[in-house]
DNA sequence: CGGCAGATGGGCT
DNA sequence: GCCCATCTGCCGC
């Protein structure tokens, strides 16, 4: 191994077999890879558990949120405000509707494909929001329920670079449990959707 | 430049 | 009506 080459590890199913508030900060710095070469480094996540009034699973299983009740390590993709797709990774035990929303990421590879998908926007705005991230990566309804540990169209890997400094802060764009510090960002990363409030 | 009001839009309850 | 969002335009610093 050369000094600046990364060590890529495939995440195990067990990584996602824990509660979302544990998995969400640990996903920071991990990478999401698509089959066509597009890759992003995750810089912002939010945790949603079944007992959380802000979670889609709070009122039980429906056709829309079904994949969140399935086994961990799979995608939950939902259609937001009639316009955007948003990607989550299911976590927690099977049968417990929980997951981590992928809110923002840093483009790493396949930039030309991301720009084609997102249109004429600044580089920093390619993936700095959940809808933008999904659009840039080509994530839509077809990815719902697919495996992110391996074998699916998108895979989460640990492309280890440097350790990250994690900041926890309130989530964005919700109307219930608005103060819970379940949003996690990499400190001082320019690709987050909104800077966390200074503390 | 940042912040905010308004419009947009589909699927849920 | 409500909602885990985004874009545009308009303000004020």
From TrEMBL:
The keyword Hydrolase applies. Keywords: DNA damage, DNA repair, Glycosidase, Hydrolase. The keyword Lipoprotein does not apply. Its EC number is 3.2.2.-. Pfam families: Pur_DNA_glyco. It comes from the Bacteria. GO terms for molecular function: hydrolase activity, acting on glycosyl bonds. Belongs to the DNA glycosylase MPG family. This is Putative 3-methyladenine DNA glycosylase. It comes from Lysobacter soyae. The lineage of its organism: Bacteria, Pseudomonadati, Pseudomonadota, Gammaproteobacteria, Lysobacterales.
